[in-house]
Specification:
The protein is α/β, with parallel strands linked by helices. Among the domains are: about 60 residues; about 100 residues, no CATH class. It is built from ten helices and four strands, in the order βββααααβαααααα. The chain has a four-stranded mixed sheet with strand order 2-1-3-4. A hairpin with a 5-residue loop joins strand 1 and strand 2. Helix 5 packs across helix 10. The longest helix is centred in the first third of the chain and has 26 residues.
């Protein structure tokens, strides 16, 4: 009997900074990424230093928010044609009603304005109805169950990764701190799959708009006021940029 192929696992990595701040690496930073998780996709979590409960709660709430966004986009795209047809029907009905039954002071202009407003309201109202539909609710609950079912476990790879992270934390937040040291090469030698996955997750993280600006400023060796404030408030972490380049530099040629 032929058995189905198990989907590759989705791994969430927890990294602990020296001050106890928790950083999570996961593939769900791009819009729609959560929709790739199916019923057969295992979701696992790995850590080096054990994460605090509030950090895990924050991650879960953040992923819940992304689930809402992704499911809303999915159902609106899936039901776009019926939404458009219903809104168009409302537009025509209101237009002919105003044109034939209601006598307005400015012919045609009032009919167009009124029917357009009615069509837009209908389009938005139908969209909200679809977002509460059974198929959207099932998709939403299925993804939430996947996130709730992810169990974080201690793993030596993350422990070694955190050692590299702490070395970079103690250095200046410039690209001169990137050396591709022995500890980074060890990750490629002993844990090539996890290391390649982390490099890709870091790439997803730092190619976002805020981190792109941070990367450019770090290459120039000086952070402007707005970026310096974001770093001070813990919104941006220069060590993420350094870690990405550090591990990439240590990759086998």
């Amino acid at each position: 009997m032929q058995t189905g192929t198990l989907a590759p696992p989705v791994t969430l990595y927890h990294l602990a900074l020296c001050d106890g701040t928790s950083l999570f690496l996961h593939p769900f930073v791009t819009r729609g990424a959560l929709l790739q998780v199916t019923a057969s996709t295992p979701v696992e979590g790995l850590f080096g230093a054990e994460p605090r409960v509030e950090a895990l709660t924050h991650l879960r709430n953040e992923l819940y928010r992304r689930i809402e966004e992704d499911v809303r986009d999915w159902i609106n795209e899936k039901r776009f044609i019926p939404r458009f047809l219903i809104a168009s029907g409302v537009f025509l009905v209101v237009f002919f009603f105003l044109a034939l039954v209601v006598h307005t002071p400015i012919p045609l202009v009032d009919e167009l304005l009124g029917s357009t407003a009615a069509g837009v309201v209908a389009f938005l109202a139908v969209g909200r109805h679809f977002e509460r539909s059974r198929s959207a609710s099932r998709r939403r609950l299925s993804l939430r169950a996947k996130i709730d079912g992810a169990v974080f476990q201690e793993h030596p790879f993350v422990q070694r990764l955190e050692q590299v992270l702490r070395r970079l934390e103690r250095a200046e937040p410039t690209m001169d701190s990137v050396i591709g040291g022995e500890d980074s090469r060890f990750l490629w030698e002993e844990y090539p799959d996890h290391t390649a996955r982390v490099v890709e997750l870091l790439r997803l993280q730092i190619t976002g708009k805020p981190y792109r600006a941070l990367s450019r400023a770090m290459k120039q060796g000086e952070l402007p006021g707005n970026l310096a404030q974001a770093v001070e408030e813990g919104i941006l972490h220069p060590v993420m940029v350094l870690l990405y380049h550090e591990i990439r530099r240590a990759a086998p040629r």
